[in-house]
UniProtKB/TrEMBL annotation:
Alphabetized UniProt keyword annotations: Cell membrane, Membrane, Transmembrane, Transmembrane helix
The organism of origin for this protein: Amycolatopsis pigmentata
InterPro entries in the cross-refs: LeuE-type
Presence of the UniProt keyword Ribosomal protein in the record: no
Location in or out of the cell: Cell membrane
Main location: membrane
Superkingdom in the source lineage: Bacteria
Name listed for the protein in its UniProt record: LysE family transporter
Transmembrane feature ranges: 6-29, 50-70, 76-94, 114-137, 149-171, 183-202
Membrane disposition: Multi-pass membrane protein
Transmembrane helix in keyword set: yes
Short name of any one Pfam family annotated for the protein: LysE
Length: 205
């Protein structure tokens, strides 16, 4: 059980820590709305990681085979959505540079933020490939209790890191209180999202 827990924690942090589009979205969400909404979005991403960890633990090899034909279209879809989010954020920041950051979150509620980031994270099929590869590499039969420990540990690791990102975003939102600071934050964050989306699209070619 201890080995499964350690494997789950390593896997969860391994998939969560690298800076990607989801990380930037979580930070921006907290900075431009509220910590509560940012944490909800963070948990949406962590839930998706947990779902993929569960699927990988139950039928990793079979799901890799099943997802292989649709992996590239799913990556393209995820990249396109990120581009649209980034472009929309840049346009909104340029049109309304003086709007208070706490009021400029597209009216996002915590539940909506949770569902949006959950759905967007689920569009990345490489996550299940990652978890499945880690499980299959151990060349052991995973009993249900062992698989459950792995999945819970992976979710806990991802959730804790996403929460740190949300907290960081909330701090940024409080520090950059001037209109110029908010504008620069919006342009930098959304610009980075667009760059990451283009990289994702190119890697799927």
């Amino acid at each position: 059980m201890t080995e499964a827990a350690i494997a789950g924690l390593v896997a969860g942090y391994g998939i969560a820590i690298p800076v990607g589009g989801m990380a930037v979205l979580i930070i921006m969400l907290s900075a431009r709305t509220s910590l509560r909404t940012g944490l909800a979005g963070a948990m949406g991403t962590a839930t998706a990681d947990g779902v993929y960890a569960l699927l990988a633990a139950l039928a990793g090899a079979a799901l890799i085979t099943l997802l292989r034909p649709v992996a590239r279209p799913m990556q393209w879809a995820g990249a396109l959505i990120l581009v649209l989010i980034g472009v929309k954020g840049v346009v909104a920041a340029l049109r309304r540079p003086g709007v208070d950051a706490r009021l400029d979150g597209n009216g996002k509620k915590p539940l909506r933020a949770y569902l949006e980031l959950f759905g967007l994270t689920m569009l990345n099929p490489l996550t299940i490939v990652y978890f499945a590869a880690l499980i299959l590499a151990q060349q052991q039969t995973w009993s249900p209790p062992r698989a459950a420990v792995f999945v819970l540990a992976a979710f806990a690791a991802s959730a804790s890191w996403q929460a740190v990102l949300a907290l960081g975003g909330a701090v940024v939102g409080r520090v950059l209180v001037s209109d110029r600071g908010r504008l620069l934050t919006a342009l930098a964050g959304n610009g980075f999202i667009i760059v990451l989306a283009v990289r994702l699209f190119v890697s799927a070619l």
